[in-house]
Amino acid sequence: MTPYCVLKIVWTIGGGPLRAINAVTVVMSGLAILLGLALAQPWGLRVPAWLMLLPAWIGMGFLVPMLPLIPALALVGGDTGDSAGEVRMAAWEVGLLSVSFAGFALGVAIAAPAYAARRWPLGAEVPGLPGVRVTLARLAAALCVALGLPSLCWAAGATAGLNPATLGNRDAQWHLLTVNNGVWALIAAASVWTLTRHTGRLPLLAAWLAAGFLFAWGSWKAVLSFAVTPEFPPPEQPWVLAAQNHFGAVAGLLILVVVLLTVADEAGQRELPGGRQRSRAGA
Questions:
Q1: Which of 174, 143, 171 minimizes the C-alpha distance to 69?
Q2: What is the top-level taxon of the source organism (predicted)?
C-alpha cells in the first residue's frame, strides 16, 4: 500500500476538488500499512483481536476476491473515472494503484491466516455443534445459493430480473464481475455448510474470505446506490440490486458469526481439562 499512500499524499498536497477525499484515503492507506505490520510482527499478537480481525476481514473481502480479475479487467478496459466530471488518471497511475491493491490483498491473504493460526490453533473435528450454529450456517448457505445462482445465470445470458431498457449495458466488465459475484457466493455457501461438519483450515479460511466479500461489497454498494446516481444504469432491476446488496451483507454477517462460534468452541474444547481428557480418550 505504500505506493498508493504516497500517490494519495501527492494528490492531497496538490489540492483540487477531491482533496478531502484524498486526505481520507491517505489515513485509510496508512491504517492498512499498520495493519499489515501488526499481522506480521510479534507485537501484533498483543493487540485486541477485534481490532486486528475486523479490518482484516473487510479488507480481504474487498480485495482478495478481486485478485484474479485485475488482469482480466485490464484486458477488457474500462473507465478510470467514476463520473463524467472526474479527471481521468494516467495509465501509469492506474497501474500503480492496481499493483498497490493487488500487493496488499495478497499480503493480507497470506498474513491474516498465518496470524490466526499462531493466535488460535485449531483442531480437525468438531465434537458436537450447537444447534444455533447449524441453523445460522444453513440459513447463510441458503441465502448464498439464492444470491450466487442468479448471477451465474445472468452471466450465461438469462434476462429474468434484469431491466429490459438497460440490457445493452451488459459489457465484458459486467460479465466478469457478475461471474465473480456468483462464484464467491457459492464458495460461501459450500464453505459455511462444510463448517457444520468439521473445522479444517481450508473451509474456515474460505468461509472467512467469502463472508468478507459478501459483507464488504454488499454494504458498500448498498450505501453507494443511495448516495450516487450512476451515469450508466446497471442491467439489473433496482429492487434486484437492493435485494442482492442487502441480503449479501446479511449473509456475510451470518457466516462471520458461524466462523467465530466455530473458533470459540474449538478453543474452549482445547482449554477445558475435560475437553483434553475427551480428546485423549478418543485418541
A1: 174
A2: Bacteria
Residue type, 179: V
pLDDT tens digits along 218-263? 988 888 777 667 777 889 888 998 999 999 999 999 999 888 888 7
| Residue listed under C-alpha cell 434476462 | 159
pTM: 0.73
Is the torsion defined by CA of 79, 82, 86, 88 positive or negative?
negative
Q: Contact at 8 Å (CB) between 206 and 191?
A: yes
The rounded distance, in Å, linking the Cα atoms of 262 and 244 is 26
pLDDT for residue 90:
67
Measured CA to CA, the distance from residue 252 to residue 18 in angstroms comes to 31
Short-list 47, 21, 52, 17, CA closest to 36: 52
State how far Cα 17 lies from the chain centre. Answer: 30
